[in-house]
Write a structure and sequence with these properties.
This protein has 432 residues and is an alpha+beta fold. The protein is built from eleven helices and 14 strands. The protein has three domains: 40 residues, no CATH class; 105 residues, Phosphorylase Kinase, domain 1 (2-Layer Sandwich), CATH 3.30.200.20; 166 residues, Transferase(Phosphotransferase), domain 1 (Orthogonal Bundle). A hairpin with a 5-residue loop joins strand 8 and strand 9. Helix 7 packs antiparallel against helix 8, helix 7 packs antiparallel against helix 11 and helix 8 packs antiparallel against helix 10. The relative contact order is 0.08. It comes from Mizuhopecten yessoensis.
């Protein structure tokens, strides 16, 4: 039998109750066929119904247009096999759910709150960042304190746009009718159910995993009841913007005060990363472009959390995009090999960015040549405004062996020891 590419389900009729069946699915592309995906299921017991009244069982076929296209592309690029297990499990669960629905239809209750927080779409599979499904399908039994009613948030202006979402400056109505300016990360207008899954994963990750720290971007809350926009998250507004841009804008106005600020930034980022490490969170994308600055120029680590594979792929080749100039040697082929110690290597690169005032790492070396140079022992030289201590720290972060690199807790302690604790110093200079 053939299933049209636009079909959302296919009904198999004349099935016997309490019988095990195996269905086999194949994606066809011209004269070529993919390897089969087999689904085994057992029909339920239908008490009080005659055999003639058993119309059959409806198998929910999550082979939508997006899945078919993704399946064909993945298959033709040799990646379809990696998705079989996930596809099998998801469709099997849908079969079970539909069978139970038919059996217990009179007693079933639909939980609308759970429905809007749970997504299922097979266009993305667990290929290295299982957090997308783990957090994307997380279900809560009641409203959470971080949920914000859509009527309390007004989008003011768009300040940035990415492949996944648009970033708006927004106004949030808080207690006693006070309004707070925040940042709203909103799905693009043409978003899909898969996009909602990923956004839901990011929201739940920040709400349940990240917690709060002065040097990590603050999760303010999320709006989940806006159907046109889909779920979107609210983050603190960092008025001074992206650190890399701030650094580049200081190239013609270097003063002792600016140099002092650079030192403080290295400390702030180390503290933020030490906190994430304590929560067992691997950043994977640590770079100056993912550090935000508050109005006081306090640095906030951002840019981490669940991502789907297509967010990290080249649009032309479909291959994984690796920010190789920021990556440790063990991650230069795939971000799936990232660890907390590879984040330490990236922190060393960020130190270099800070003291070079936002230069691109490995100046004069093409990205394709970085891996060879690093493997052969090449390390970047000390930037102009870098003290000996910070350059020595960079080199420690750039050790080939992961076990030889310092942990973030040791980095925090080392930087902290360079600050005095006199009354004239800022509070974050004091040893913690």
């Amino acid at each position: 039998m053939h299933v049209h590419k636009d079909s959302e389900y296919y009904t198999l009729g004349n099935l016997d109750p309490e019988t095990t069946y195996t269905a086999q699915f194949v994606v066809e592309y011209g004269d070529e066929k993919s390897d089969p995906v087999k689904i085994t299921f057992t029909t339920g017991e239908y008490e009080g119904l005659s055999a003639g009244a058993i119309a059959g069982i409806t198998i929910v076929m999550l082979i939508l247009v997006g899945l078919l296209i993704a399946g064909i592309v993945l298959w033709r690029t040799g990646k379809l096999n990696r998705y079989k297990e996930s596809i099998y499990g998801q469709i099997q669960r849908r079969i079970t759910r539909r069978r139970r629905s038919n059996t217990y239809n009179n007693s079933r209750e639909v939980n609308k709150h759970q429905e809007r927080k749970s997504f299922a779409n097979l266009a993305y599979s667990d290929v290295g960042d299982e957090d997308v499904y783990l957090y994307g399908q997380m279900v809560f039994n009641e409203n959470q304190a971080w949920e914000v009613h859509h009527g309390k948030v007004s989008l003011v202006e768009k300040i940035a746009s990415g492949r996944f979402a648009d970033v708006f400056k927004a106004s949030q109505n808080c207690k006693k009718n006070n309004r707070k300016i925040v940042v709203a990360k909103v799905l693009k207008e043409s978003h899909t159910e898969l996009d909602e899954l990923v956004m839901n994963a990011k929201i739940n990750f920040f709400a349940t995993k990240t917690g709060s720290h002065a040097n990590v971007i603050e999760f303010v809350g999320a709006v989940l009841d806006n159907k046109p926009l889909g779920p979107f998250m609210l983050l603190e507004l960092c008025e001074a913007g992206v650190m890399r841009t701030w650094l580049q804008n200081r190239r013609t106005m270097m003063t002792d005060s600016v140099v002092d600020t650079l030192f403080r930034m290295t400390f702030d980022i180390a503290k933020g990363m030490d906190y994430l490490a304590s929560k067992q969170i691997i950043h994977r994308h640590l770079a100056a472009r993912n550090i935000l600055l508050a109005s006081s120029l306090e640095a906030k680590v951002a840019g981490f959390g669940p991502t789907r594979e297509t967010e990290q792929q080249d649009g032309d080749t479909g291959k994984e995009k690796v920010p190789i100039k920021w990556m440790a040697p063990e991650c230069m082929t795939s971000l799936k090999d990232a660890t907390m110690q590879s984040d330490v290597w990236s922190y060393g690169i960020v130190l270099w960015e800070i003291f070079s005032l936002g230069d691109t790492p490995y100046p004069g070396i093409r990205s394709m040549d970085v891996a060879t140079n690093v493997t052969n022992g090449y390390r970047m030289s000390r930037p102009e405004y870098c003290a000996d201590m910070h350059y020595e720290l960079m080199k420690k972060c750039w050790q080939d062996k992961q076990s030889s690199r310092p942990k973030f807790s040791a980095i925090v302690q080392e930087i902290s020891s360079t600050f005095s604790s006199s009354q004239d110093d800022y509070y974050y200079y004091a040893t913690q």
